[in-house]
Amino acid sequence: MPTIKDVAKRAGVSRTTVSRVLNDNGYVSHEARQRVVEAVKEMGYIPSAHAKTMRTKRSGVIGVILPRISTETASRVVNGIEEELAANGYQILLTNTQLKPEKEIENIKLLKSRQVDGIILLATNRNQDLLETIADLSIPFVALGQELTGVTSVVYDDYNSAFDVTESFISKGHQDIAFIGVPETDHAVGVVRKQGYLDAMAKHHLPVKEEWIQHGNFSFESGYQAAKQLMEDTHFKPTALFAVTDRMAIGALGYLKEKQIDVPGEVALFGIGASDLSLHVTPPLSTVDYFNEDAGQKTAQLILEQLTGKVGEKEKIKLNYRLIKRDSV
Amino acid sequence: MPTIKDVAKRAGVSRTTVSRVLNDNGYVSHEARQRVVEAVKEMGYIPSAHAKTMRTKRSGVIGVILPRISTETASRVVNGIEEELAANGYQILLTNTQLKPEKEIENIKLLKSRQVDGIILLATNRNQDLLETIADLSIPFVALGQELTGVTSVVYDDYNSAFDVTESFISKGHQDIAFIGVPETDHAVGVVRKQGYLDAMAKHHLPVKEEWIQHGNFSFESGYQAAKQLMEDTHFKPTALFAVTDRMAIGALGYLKEKQIDVPGEVALFGIGASDLSLHVTPPLSTVDYFNEDAGQKTAQLILEQLTGKVGEKEKIKLNYRLIKRDSV
DNA sequence: AAGCAATATGGAATCGATACCACATTAAGT
DNA sequence: ACTTAATGTGGTATCGATTCCATATTGCTT
């Protein structure tokens, strides 16, 4: 690998001049520039980003911490982030927590050691240690998916979307509406969405039976089991089923189809996420579109704002959503 | 950000000693070590990976070039890669070509400038410029998905799997088997899979009508259109339909259901990819599982081998596959 | 008691870039 | 013709780590 020194020698100039040509700043004569450009091409010179970062304190890299790489949501969000950042000359460095909270902190340190200029966290929990680690951090930081106190956050409108889904059932005449949620460690999905459901039920003076509230773990299988529980082990069978993720909703759908329970005739179904899957199951699943790509893009924009100085306080941004009603209701 | 110098001062030792403690090599007295460890903790010191990389010429990072981030296949492969590399102390740096061939070369340079220790390319084409760029590269390189000449490659068994799918149709009595492929720029998917289909047909002396060979672009919509074409604009209607990706197969399925054409009664259907979708559509789609995670893992292992010196020639590895027959046939 | 290996520590060079300062040379303004 | 500004170029310190070499101390062996 040739270095800037080699290029300088070949072009018959100093390293300083080569640097000037590379970064297009300072005064360089036409001939000198030409000789440098030529030398660079001939030698296949590629500047070392590390040396540059070390000297300038800017790496041009944004770290993105994902709970899991292989989910549709994460993919879409990353796409949005990538698009926006690439357009502004930044690269992204992805890390994966495999859903382990302790790995979030570990990854933040890892990214810090690599001198990333900013960090985006697709958050799944609101761990105290995590908040402290972030507070100690001296670089731009944006969380997506959970509202973290003291941290610029972009969140989906979990409450209102869940509220609307529930009301949409109610407006169709449903009264016995069951709920498939997730554990409360995931605040946005586990707590806020449930609250939206509960409040909508309360607003219409509909009782919520304890046995109608089930919990899964985001998987198809857990949705299947929750539906089974709801349809087999309850005194009052619900006529509508609201799962807080599409995967669980589709798991539930699997159970209903297996038992030949008509959807939406006997039981109506709603999910959240607008996954590819939701459109292609039978019947097509009603769901909520959170516009994940836009979310990623918005998040990236916030990081860029912080990067370019417009620090603009710790913002809280709540995103749009859209109910997609299909044949499952 | 404290540096090694600050830690040294705090602990009352030299930078050298701190480095020794950090890397656990050389002689360090018990007390000195203790003071250093304490200082590190107190100051929240995080070593600069850049300085280290610069000095040692090892970054501990493997670059992964993806055609697109948000596909199920890519996600799974990355998962496999990540798992294997993380276990060996490596991080991955993802880049995205957005399916543009020229971006592959650009990204290789980008990764090189970041001193990655190796590069994995999820290849979609066999561009000559690309091959030259790789040949010039002096770091470990593995391609996944396409067999690139002169490059260690891991490939799916496109030929035999396509052959088997076709024979599976034939063994069920089908003779009029249509094919939905993709353009030949993607050699593995566009050329090899088609050859598997053609050879299987030839082996059983079945004629292949020109009009039975359609092409899509990996999207649902293109699968839908191809099916429409096949069922509306042909003289002889096929009784079986083999799409080289699940997405196109499911697009085709959408058309068939819309026209109330019974699957598999009137038309049988096969895809490739073992996507989540394939299991949850109605009827469940028959497909081919390429074990993407294993593929990623295997690819990572090859990189690791090259990294640890066992250079072992330019290997060519062909992966296993498995036909999953479901109700669509 | 002398010699030598093992242990312990620090100084200084180095990796490859950038940036500041110094110093020419040329052009422009009065 | 002389000052001042613009242009062009190179030397050297610096970023934060590692590594080689030199030196000091200790413990063992004969």
The CATH topology annotation of the largest domain in chain A reads as: Rossmann fold
The coarse silhouette of chain A is elongated
Question: What is the top-level CATH class of the largest domain in chain A?
Answer: Alpha Beta
Number of domains of chain A: 3
Q: Strand order, main sheet of chain A: write it out.
A: 2-1-3-4-5-11
Oligomeric assembly: homodimer
Number of helices of chain A: 13
How many strand segments of chain A? 12
State the low-pLDDT regions of chain A, or none. Answer: none
SS-derived structural category of chain A: alpha/beta
Major sheet details of chain A: 6 strands, parallel
The CATH architecture of the largest domain in chain A would be 3-Layer(aba) Sandwich
Estimated share of beta-strand residues of chain A:
5-15%
> What is the assigned CATH homologous superfamily of the largest domain in chain A?
Response regulator
Average predicted confidence as pLDDT of chain A = 94
The N- and C-terminal alpha carbons of chain A lie at a distance of 63 Å
Largest protein-protein interface: A-B, 45 and 46 residues
Rg estimate of chain A, integer Å? 26 Å
Order of helical and strand elements of chain A? HHHHEHEHEHEEHEHEHEHEHEHEE
